[in-house]
Amino acid sequence: MANVRLEDIKRRFNNVTAIENITFEIPDGEFWVLVGPSGCGKSTILRTIAGLETATSGKLYIGDRLVNNIPARQRDVAMVFQNYALYPHMSVAQNIGFGLEMRKVDRKIIQERVMNVARSLSLDHLLDRKPKQLSGGQQQRVALGRAIAREPQVFLLDEPLSNLDAQLRDDTRAELKQLHQELGITTIYVTHDQVEAMTLADKIVVLNRGRIQQIGDPQTIYASPANQMVATFLGSPPMNILPAIYQNNSFDVSGQLLAIPADVKEKLQLRQGHSYDLGIRPEHIKINTDSEQAEQQLSDNSTQNSELLLVEVKVVEPLGRETLIRAGLPGSAVMLNIQVGGDVRLRPGDRLSLQLDLNQLFVFDPKTGDRIL
């Protein structure tokens, strides 16, 4: 096992910069997740660590060893791919032990290690089967087993669960976390799924357009995102963004006046007529389903500051324990995500007043996306 350190890594393809100024260090034994939208550079970073890509500039260390010019087979890392990459003509046992065979490990040691790995992954009753006789989840566990059997210094996993159905993905994700707790091997995991990132990671690296946006533990990044991209990418449903204009000591949100908390006024140097993006998470919004009261509140809100916004329900998504609502501000294209209890009955067209917890309000610069507050 080893730590992994990247120092100002850059990778260019012809005139395109895939990743730039990538610098971080993963301590020995930690589980880090690289997350971001498609094309953000996360797989390029993983492949560069594996030795499948060559950094254009910068330094890459595994342990204390500089590995820039060391070929992939000598880096002592094991990579699990999205498509499993199993040998169809080999049995499960042969697939798990293949890396050890290539290293010419003693056959008795291979058999013992294959059996131990198979037991830990609940594959011991499938050792004689071929990959085509396995389910997708079983094939993924065989690919993981092949990596584990090698006992590498570092695990690299490139979206290993994306081909699984929802229930199997949840189960395998829990198995992965338990395996890491047992093995303690430094692990780098790539995904675009923010739920996987939040549930698996000791630390998350959020990427966008080839650059690091923020590094931190899941709770810190969720509660204190560095910018609007991070705020809206992590969280399900995502954070609501409300374009607003500061005027008359309040935020004008599509014609509705939203109160500004006193501490916000103290911390911000608000400028009359200036635009801001307000962020608030769905769990920090409460609803009032009384439409007449909502209309009255809108009338009151037209002349004075309020913590309330009037919206119209557009889409209702029942999920059992809770219901997700997509609602729009009247006369505006702005939409909000709202979470309500599963017992709340709403239909498209219903008018609601929303009470926002302004102590949980984020303020972003609409030009740069940086968090102001």
UniProtKB/TrEMBL annotation:
<dbReference type="GO" id="GO:0008643">
    <property type="term" value="P:carbohydrate transport"/>
</dbReference>
<dbReference type="GO" id="GO:0055052">
    <property type="term" value="C:ATP-binding cassette (ABC) transporter complex, substrate-binding subunit-containing"/>
</dbReference>
<dbReference type="GO" id="GO:0140359">
    <property type="term" value="F:ABC-type transporter activity"/>
</dbReference>
<dbReference type="InterPro" id="IPR047641">
    <property type="entry name" value="ABC_transpr_MalK/UgpC-like"/>
</dbReference>
<keyword id="KW-0547">Nucleotide-binding</keyword>
<dbReference type="InterPro" id="IPR003593">
    <property type="entry name" value="AAA+_ATPase"/>
</dbReference>
<dbReference type="InterPro" id="IPR003439">
    <property type="entry name" value="ABC_transporter-like_ATP-bd"/>
</dbReference>
<keyword id="KW-0067">ATP-binding</keyword>
<dbReference type="InterPro" id="IPR017871">
    <property type="entry name" value="ABC_transporter-like_CS"/>
</dbReference>
<dbReference type="GO" id="GO:0005524">
    <property type="term" value="F:ATP binding"/>
</dbReference>
<dbReference type="InterPro" id="IPR015855">
    <property type="entry name" value="ABC_transpr_MalK-like"/>
</dbReference>
<dbReference type="InterPro" id="IPR008995">
    <property type="entry name" value="Mo/tungstate-bd_C_term_dom"/>
</dbReference>
<dbReference type="InterPro" id="IPR027417">
    <property type="entry name" value="P-loop_NTPase"/>
</dbReference>
<dbReference type="InterPro" id="IPR012340">
    <property type="entry name" value="NA-bd_OB-fold"/>
</dbReference>
<dbReference type="Pfam" id="PF00005">
    <property type="entry name" value="ABC_tran"/>
</dbReference>
<dbReference type="InterPro" id="IPR040582">
    <property type="entry name" value="OB_MalK-like"/>
</dbReference>
<protein>
    <submittedName>
        <fullName>Sugar ABC transporter ATP-binding protein</fullName>
    </submittedName>
</protein>
<dbReference type="GO" id="GO:0016887">
    <property type="term" value="F:ATP hydrolysis activity"/>
</dbReference>
<feature type="domain" description="ABC transporter">
    <location>
        <begin position="4"/>
        <end position="234"/>
    </location>
</feature>
<keyword id="KW-0813">Transport</keyword>
<dbReference type="Pfam" id="PF17912">
    <property type="entry name" value="OB_MalK"/>
</dbReference>
